[in-house]
Amino acid sequence: MKSIKLFVLLGIIGLFAVGAKFAMDKPVEKMNMEKPMGKSMMDAKVATFAGGCFWCTESDFEKVEGVVEAVSGYSGGHVDNPTYGQVSSGRTGHTEVVQVTYDPKKVSYDELLDVLWRIMDPTDPNGQFVDRGSQYRPEIFYHNKEQKAMAEASRDRLAKSGRFSKPIHTKITRLEKFYKAEAYHQNYYKTHAVRYKYYRFNSGRDQFLKKVWGDDMLVKQKMGKKKMMKTSKYMKPADEVLQKKLTPLQYKVTQHEGTERPFSNEYWDNKQEGIYVDVVSGEPLFSSRDKYKSGTGWPSFSRPLVTENIVNKQDKKLFMARTEVRSKFGDSHLGHLFSDGPKPTGLRYCINSASLRFIPRDKLKQEGYENFASLFK
Fold it and tell me: What is the pLDDT of residues 240-253, one digit of tens each?
């Protein structure tokens, strides 16, 4: 079976024949996973991902800040040193992959996983977009137990988020061998820019991703201004999921900057020990140890539990300048920040109960927040 991507290219621009591409086939080099790196690369790590057409996957990963290089190749099959022609037939068991060398000081494996989910369709085990067949199946090839655990956790978070209406069908498999693809395929998006752009546009990939992810597709790019998308084990579900998950008040407050009534909300006078997390994403926000009686009728805290999970924005609504408080990963409206709080911070985080979920100290481990249990010993 000939590669479908070739037919797309032929049908659109007619610039080259199938034979021209297969004429470039030659025995490929097997990547030596044990080959020592130079001094400048001593801290670099390697990840291997399959997301359909490796021209596209390589292009997307090479744009991410912290990625040193992405190399196109083949993994997951039963034939040694396969050629592109063999792999594209669908009979070798391989799938097109990219091997990503990255600087963990600039980008984490978790963040690379979040990039992967945003550049392919993880629900389609039989190919990707216009490219059909197992040779284009999505798959994560882990290099060690740590990567395996992180990949499984990331996949589970994605499944629970409701971002996709179909089940997630992306396998997580131990990497046995990686075969580097022919030189013709490396950096194809640069060396054959026009052909690549025609192929990519007509593959339907970007249209699908834009529909699913919207503005959440943004990643931190080299020499660019795009921001890193919100990546962690905490993820904001799709809007239709939120509307089912949240009460009308919770949805109004978190998604449309609403405000609940004082003195008649769930946590304003809660005195239990525990932590408060974002009702949308679950990210930890505040601790009962920093909660105090402000007299305002809303939960008030003198400081965040995890500073990095709090985002402050200028709010000019109601004809006054205030500081809005939002969560980092859930992007939930939480409340406002004032400078009339108690010492030592002098701050008052005035938060809506509807934006929070309380986790009592005796349920921290059960709920997956055991790292905060030591606060209450």
Answer: 888 889 999 999 99
Q: Find how far residue 31's CA is from the centre of its chain.
A: 27
Name the token pair of 36. Answer: 């020592």
- Rounded alpha-carbon distances, angstroms, from residue 222 to 20, 55, 65, 184, 225: 33, 18, 5, 24, 8
State residue 213 phi and psi, 5-degree precision.
Answer: -105, -25
pTM of the model: 0.59
Residues identified as active-site:
53, 350
CA distance 308 to 285: 9
pLDDT for position 7: 47
**Domains (ranges, CATH) in the chain?**
4-217 (3.30.1060.10), 240-376 (2.170.150.20)
- The confidence score (pLDDT) of residue 204 equals 93
For the segment 106-125, the average pLDDT, to the nearest whole number, is 93
Phi, psi of 48 (to 5 degrees): -130, 125
CA dist 254 and 59 (Å) reads 36
Across the chain, mean pLDDT equals 86
Res 227 pLDDT > 70:
no
d(CA 48, CA 27): 21
- How far is CA 243 from each of CA 8, 167, 251, rounded to the nearest angstrom? 40, 20, 7
Report how far residue 1's alpha carbon sits from residue 90's, in angstroms, rounded to the nearest whole number: 7
